[in-house]
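Recall that a protein's primary structure is simply its ordered list of amino acids. Everything else, from secondary elements to tertiary packing, is in principle encoded there. The following example makes that idea concrete.
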Amino acid sequence: ELPPSEFMQVADSTWLVLSVVSNGREPPGCQATGVTKIARSVIAPLAEHHVSVLMLSTYQTDFILVRERDLPVVIHTLAGEFDIYREESGECVPVTCDDVSNGFLKPKPPTSPTLHPVQSPQTRFCVLTVAPDTLPAIATMLIDVLFYSHSPPWDAATSSQDLDSITFFSFSLIEGYISIVMDAETQKRFPSDLLLTSSTGELWRMVRIGGQPLGFDECGIVAQIAEPLAAADISAYYISTFNFDHALVPEEGIAEVIQLLQQRQESSR
């Protein structure tokens, strides 16, 4: 519905959404759990088969986006461990390898993934949700934050350094469920009684992956982060964007996360 514009850049590929559920049901409760081990069991095999993914964690659950042209490889890769369904007119229809065998692409020979720098700004973040019927009460503030609070211009000279702070705001509306990520200072601008968070009210710190825009063809970026954190049983809330990837982890675990990722980079050299 968006009109063509010289100001809007659109990736060439069309993407499909994978929603990973356990025993046919969504994870119970509304709590930000991030890149779960179930999601990890999808991300790692896809990376091995050279399937690029975009990861989108929300307050309610995780979504993995894959390019439509990669669907045959995705089905063949995951069919051994997962029951796979596609949604048709609101109904879930089983999918088998035979459904997508035509055009199946065999995986390419393995290559060493690029090790991207990670940065950990000092900014503290909140992961929140809001009831849809209360959205009009904060609409003006949302518009102000989304469209009139601008990030400082990107400076390539800072690419190898940790950022002191980062401007980051994420708003997603998926099937009626709203998920918001904002820094703790921005949260103070909103009525506290309308923003819902986990019972612990924990704050999150960010690890940003990439010193320059990552593109959409490289594989294994999410796996490089998700695997060591899942192995250490550290919850991570992961958001892929047009330019960079961002992993949010509980504030008290940021030092351990940085150490794990640094060790992984050193061992891969």
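The radius of gyration is 19 Å. Helices lie at 37-48, 71-78, 135-148, 184-187, 221-231, 254-268.
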